[in-house]
Amino acid sequence: MDSFSALIRTASHEQHVEAETSTFMSDLLGGRLGMAAYARYTEQLWFVYAALESTAEHLATHPVAGPFIRPELLRLPALERDLAHLRGADWRSGLSALPATRAYADRIRQCAERWPGGYVAHHYTRYLGDLSGGQIIRDRAEKTWGFAKKGDGVRFYVFEQIPNPAAFKRGYRELLDGVAADDLEKQRIVTECKTAFALNTGVFRALGEEFPLSA
Ligand code: HEM
């Protein structure tokens, strides 16, 4: 059988293409949206990472999820700096989750509380993606809205404590390959990963509706 890291990658490939080519992402990457859309998207990410990271501490010693909990990945402080830049010092007062974001964050919290294997699926889907395609998004955002390179507004995409993302991703895939789960549980994790992608696509769909391009 293929390694687990190869399995989860292959199994989610189709959903990856769907997320990547969603109308909202295409418009964002194509430089066709205003900064308000980018700010709204960044707000949604805040809810997702609050769910991933407020639950991380109690999973740190769990045999399945524990090895994935790494302080150098934490995104919430960077997101909060970006939001202060995008929305101003009182960014918290205007923060609101779209229903699709609420559903996504709820699912992450459910997994964190009841099913650490499922949490690993969500962890993989976000952090490995941020370390990969996230860099393309950062580059586009800097060019489209004029943020300082790796500065305020795009700090979410900058992993200050991961100088070599390619090496980090290799290490991460080794963690996936060594995950303390049997084949059935691995299958379930793969299925949850597809759900995680679908939840992301749902957020993009809602954002696309909120920020349609006027023809
Ligand atoms: C426009 C948006 C996106 C672009 C341009 C993009 C691009 C990429 C690229 C180039 C890779 C390959 C990295 C490599 O081979 O090392 C990658 C991997 C990945 N992306 Fe994306 N991506 C996007 C959106 C997303 C989204 C929305 C998610 C999920 C929330 C996601 C999750 C992932 C994951 C989990 C991987 C790692 C696959 C693996 O090696 O196991 N990506 N992405």
Automatic annotation (TrEMBL):
Keywords of this entry: Heme, Iron, Metal-binding, Oxidoreductase
Example GO biological process: heme catabolic process
Binding site residues for heme b: R9, H16, Y124, R173
Coiled coil spans: none
Assigned EC number: 1.14.14.18
CDD domains per the UniProt record, alphabetical: HemeO (cd19165)
Source domain of life: Bacteria
UniProt enzyme class: oxidoreductase
Molecular function terms, GO-annotated: heme binding; heme oxygenase (decyclizing) activity; metal ion binding
Protein name: Heme oxygenase
Organism: Streptomyces griseochromogenes
